[in-house]
Amino acid sequence: MRIGELARRAGTTTRTLRYYESRGLLPARRAENGYRSYDEGDLRLLQQIRTLQDFGFDLEETRPFVDCLRAGHPAGDACPASLAVYRRKLDELDALIAQLASVRAEVGAQLARAELEASADLPGGPPPRCELGGPT
Amino acid sequence: MRIGELARRAGTTTRTLRYYESRGLLPARRAENGYRSYDEGDLRLLQQIRTLQDFGFDLEETRPFVDCLRAGHPAGDACPASLAVYRRKLDELDALIAQLASVRAEVGAQLARAELEASADLPGGPPPRCELGGPT
DNA sequence: GTATTCCTTGACGCCGACGTCAACGCAAGG
DNA sequence: CCTTGCGTTGACGTCGGCGTCAAGGAATAC
Questions:
Q1: B9: domain range?
Q2: Residue of chain B nearest A76, judged by CA positions
Q3: Does residue A43 reach within 7 angstroms of strand D, measured from its CB?
Q4: Within a domain: B16
Q5: pLDDT per residue over A53-107, tens digit each?
Q6: Which chain A residues have a beta carbon less than 8 Å from that of B65?
Q7: Which residues in chain A have their CB less than 8 angstroms from residue B90's CB?
Q8: Which of A24, A81, A136, B99 to pair with B60, CA 20 to 30 A apart?
């Protein structure tokens, strides 16, 4: 199949496929007229790449999976190098999530404090407090 | 004070300060010789910007805070526009964290599955299973 | 034949927040 | 005077993953 059909079947663009080829990730055979020629195996390689990309893997990180498939393994993650990428990505995700959670907490606290101070400065004095028990 | 001193005191670079000025975020007065001249107020504005940048706010998002300080408020988040940015950022963070958590779960599951299949293909047959009860 | 669509390569554009270099001016110390 | 170390503007480089356009050749539909 030619580049347009592969792109359509994988839900991507021809530009993307040419880019992958320029990176050496998905080289293509050539027909006599110079057109790139792909087969079903290439579609599977491409699907593997896209799946990982959707997960936030960058291109270089998908390379071990592609190599693994090309080496004849039924799954891209059947090779140690792929598993290593998985583990490294998990660590990255954990670190990133932790950092974002920390930022979220800080921003949330800042918002709460700022809202409190804003309401204290409003006309009519401070709004009703929430106090427990005791007759008024 | 001049640009180098301000940069040092804020823990950033002169290039960054010129960049902020080019974006209209932190304009500077000029001395007679053309040198940029800053005061303590500028340092506070800059600190506000850096704090938010460290939280992952992009430059445009810091603008309401800077404007708020420049308007004479004691805190950059004492203005409604700043609070709106806080809230938007919280929503963004929540969405991003949720997405990353989802990805983390999927990647973790893939890793577990791949490790299981790998161990099943190792020499010596599959490793000991973890089964409950029953005589062997 | 011709119109349309596909393919080719090459090259520039984009985004954000600066880094880095060039080429120069100005100031202060010895 | 000379050097060193500030400052100035301008402009190009960085990173990733492509988008977009240009100028042409090839295949297909009618």
A1: 3-120
A2: B114
A3: no
A4: yes
A5: 999 999 999 999 999 999 999 999 999 999 999 999 999 999 999 999 999 999 9
A6: none
A7: 104, 107-108, 111
A8: B99
Q: Which two tokens stand for residue A116?
A: 């409190």
- Flag whether B136 is in a domain: no
CA atoms within 13 A on the CB side of B52: 26
Report the distance from CA of residue A5 to the C1' of nucleotide C4 in Å, as an integer: 18
> What CATH number did the domain enclosing B76 receive?
1.10.1660.10
Q: What's the CA A2/C1' D28 distance, rounded, in angstroms? A: 14
3-state secondary structure string across chain B: CCHHHHHHHHCCCHHHHHHHHHCCCCCCEECCCCCEECCHHHHHHHHHHHHHHHCCCCHHHHHHHHHHHHCCCCCCCCCHHHHHHHHHHHHHHHHHHHHHHHHHHHHHHHHHHHHHHHHHCCCCCCCCCCCCCCCC
**3-state secondary structure (DSSP) of residue A2:** coil
What phi and psi values does residue A13 have, to the nearest 5 degrees? -120, 165
Nearest CA in chain A to B118: A78
Q: Chains A, B: CB contacts under 8 A, how many? A: 77
Residue with tokens 């939280």: B55
Contacts of A37 (CB under 8 A, 6+ apart): A1, A2, A28, A29, A30, A31
Q: Residue A22 — left, alpha, or beta (φ > 0 → left; ψ -120 to 50 → alpha)?
A: alpha
Q: How do residues B54-108 score in pLDDT, each as one tens digit?
A: 999 999 999 999 999 999 999 999 999 999 999 999 999 999 999 999 999 999 9
Q: How many domains, in total, are found in chain A? A: 1
Domain membership flag for residue B25: yes
- Adjacent-strand bridge partners of B108: none
Confirm whether A130 is domain-assigned.
no
Phi, psi of B126 (to 5 degrees): -60, 145
